[in-house]
Inverse folding.
């Protein structure tokens, strides 16, 4: 049944969080069911300017099932995200949502969760923290890595998690990166969830392995289709993938969240 | 109103198919498109054994288009036959299997394996700019192209479409060469070789350095080449390159294409193929065209 479509969604509000970070709430029409969305999944946002054909993949930051709405928080880095930042309440935007596989939550086995967000990898951690709480996680600790003291979204984590901060310039929290924070405070956990730049994810993979705990990592890659067809967005996998029949997996379809031991980067 | 065409001896309910490599084997699009509506599905290039493809980044966006250097990653013919053909057989659409190889023997191996399969047409890709061996080499030398065609025809049980590269001085020379080799049809254009540089990182945007340019940016080049080829050979033409809507498709048809394929536009809207078919009907209705065949090559 061909029942999915790129849909016309509506921006209900947009605010600027920092110089280059925006927060947008989007309401979806009935043909796009947001209640199936889970943290860690992403949406494909399309530009109005027809010369930019490819979707911009952006993580889900918050889910509002009652109103069929999603929130995204994104950094303006190029022409597409700049275009999005100009959209005011009431504007329409073409989107396919939700896409990919999100974080797996199992609070019976993994009672103490550690969430790590680096830079623009912070937004997807918010809905995850909330869901972990709702699912009865014993403890939710979150480490947020920022460049400077802008600390976007930090306050919004407080109701759900113990929040730790690192900044590259030392203006707030620990000077350094998220791994420095974990070591400094001796943070323990049964499971790690992380999203952020590759060097950070590499460090976390090593750390999880050393401690013998599971880590679920959210990866990024350039995408064209966003639905698993073009093989543009692959990452190397440890084992031969069932679909590709070679040692790589599609980030848009098999990820973007992977078990750290399943992928090589 | 008649939308059906006869392409290389096969009756196809409408002239719209998908461009190889942009539609997987159709499975990823089944939630977005009613595959029964498509004239045909053209599958991602398949080789005799699985290929890993290139390093990432494999994709980058350009003005009104994109560059790709996937490197023909594919699961190999065994899994393709076991999984992808049965999947497509569930639908009322024709199956065009795109074949790639690094050597002549590799092409032949795949063609032989497909001989007993219930598929409708073969599309032989001798024009991929992203793999070093084979591929493009066959697509840029008329004599080699003729030889590949001739060899493939010896083993093929389905009509053979030879897919041409635009990265040549004279596309009609290549078209004539594959016609002489016995090709039943030609398809064009594959991507144009391009490059993008990331000025902030002072490096290439693609790991492969160069990639294939596709999308609306290449459409005028593609229409011109389809027109030239349609007027140079007797075999039918499958036209593609930047088709985004019914109007684009009609340009190719009027230039001489019997069928059209939609590629990069699927990335902008996964349901676009269905919209294009509906748009063709609307155009015909509005303009009193009873049979789409009246439009094929109507611009001389
Ligand atoms: C699964 C996933 C989730 C993401 N979640 C977020 C998020 O929540 N917030 C956020 O700010 N950013 C996120 N990103 C990164 C975001 O997709 C890019 O910043 C954005 O596409 C840039 O678009 P642009 O037009 O502004 O930049 P340009 O550089 O002009 O874009 C040109 C092309 O490159 C692609 N591109 C550029 N940077 C990236 C990148 N880092 N990753 C993938 N494609 C890129 C664009 O999509 C576009 O096709 C995510 C990326 C992925 C893969
Ligand atoms: C991501 C991608 C992958 C492709 N893979 C193949 C392939 O495997 N075999 C092939 O013959 N052509 C391949 N092509 C070329 C297309 O089939 C088509 O010839 C070209 O993209 C022009 O059409 P378009 O502008 O509509 O995309 C690929 C193109 C893209 C964008
Ligand atoms: S973007 Fe096409 S497979 Fe992931």
């Amino acid at each position: 049944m061909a029942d999915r479509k790129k849909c016309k969604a509506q921006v209900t509000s947009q605010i600027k969080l920092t110089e280059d970070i925006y927060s947008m709430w989007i309401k979806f029409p009935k043909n796009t069911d947001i209640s199936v969305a889970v943290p860690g999944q992403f949406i494909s946002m399309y530009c109005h300017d027809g010369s930019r054909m490819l979707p911009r993949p952006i993580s889900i930051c918050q889910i509002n099932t009652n109103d069929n709405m999603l929130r995204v928080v994104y950094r303006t880095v190029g022409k597409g995200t700049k275009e999005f930042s100009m959209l005011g309440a009431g504007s329409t935007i073409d989107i396919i949502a939700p896409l990919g596989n999100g974080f797996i939550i199992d609070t019976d086995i993994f009672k103490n969760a550690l969430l790590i967000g680096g830079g623009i990898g912070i937004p997807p951690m918010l809905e995850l923290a909330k869901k972990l709480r709702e699912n009865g996680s014993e403890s939710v600790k979150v480490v947020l890595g920022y460049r400077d003291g802008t600390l976007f979204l930090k306050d919004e984590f407080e109701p759900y998690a113990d929040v730790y901060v690192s900044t590259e310039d030392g203006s707030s929290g620990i000077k350094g990166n998220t791994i420095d924070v974990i070591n400094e405070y001796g943070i323990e956990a049964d499971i790690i969830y992380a999203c952020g730049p590759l060097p950070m994810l590499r460090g976390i993979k090593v750390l999880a392995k050393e401690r013998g705990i599971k880590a679920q990592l959210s990866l990024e890659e350039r995408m064209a289709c966003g639905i698993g067809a073009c093989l543009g967005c692959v990452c190397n996998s440890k084992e031969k993938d069932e679909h590709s029949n070679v040692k790589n997996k599609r980030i848009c379809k098999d990820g973007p969240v992977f078990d750290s031991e399943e992928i090589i980067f | 109103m008649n939308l059906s065409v006869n392409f290389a001896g096969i009756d196809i309910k409408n002239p719209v198919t998908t461009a190889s490599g942009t539609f997987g084997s159709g499975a990823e699009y089944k939630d977005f498109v009613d595959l029964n509506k498509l004239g045909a599905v053209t599958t991602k290039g398949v080789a005799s054994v699985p290929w890993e493809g290139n390093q990432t980044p494999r994709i980058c966006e350009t003005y009104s288009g994109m560059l790709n250097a996937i490197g023909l990653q594919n699961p190999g013919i065994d899994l393709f036959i076991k999984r992808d053909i049965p999947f497509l057989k569930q639908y009322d659409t024709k199956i065009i299997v795109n074949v790639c190889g690094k050597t002549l023997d590799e092409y032949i191996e795949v063609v032989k394996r497909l001989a007993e399969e219930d598929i409708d047409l073969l599309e032989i890709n001798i024009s991929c700019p992203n793999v070093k061996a084979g591929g493009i080499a066959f697509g840029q030398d008329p004599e080699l192209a003729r030889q590949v065609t001739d060899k493939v025809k010896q083993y093929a049980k389905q009509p053979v479409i030879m897919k041409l590269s635009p990265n040549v001085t004279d596309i009609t020379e290549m078209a004539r060469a594959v016609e002489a080799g016995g090709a039943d049809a030609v398809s064009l254009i594959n991507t144009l070789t391009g490059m993008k540089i990331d000025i902030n990182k002072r490096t290439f945007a693609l790991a492969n350095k160069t990639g294939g340019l596709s999308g609306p940016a290449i459409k005028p080049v593609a229409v011109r080449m389809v027109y030239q080829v349609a007027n140079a050979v007797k075999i039918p033409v499958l036209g593609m390159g930047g088709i985004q809507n019914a109007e684009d498709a009609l340009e190719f048809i009027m230039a001489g294409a019997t069928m059209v394929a939609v590629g990069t536009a699927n990335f902008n809207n996964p349901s676009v193929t269905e919209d294009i078919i509906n748009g063709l009907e609307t155009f015909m209705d509005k303009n009193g065209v009873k049979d789409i065949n009246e439009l094929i090559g109507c611009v001389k």
Q: What stands out?
A: Residues A 223-226, 228-233, 250, 252 surround FE2/S2 (inorganic) cluster (ligand 3) (CB under 6 Å).
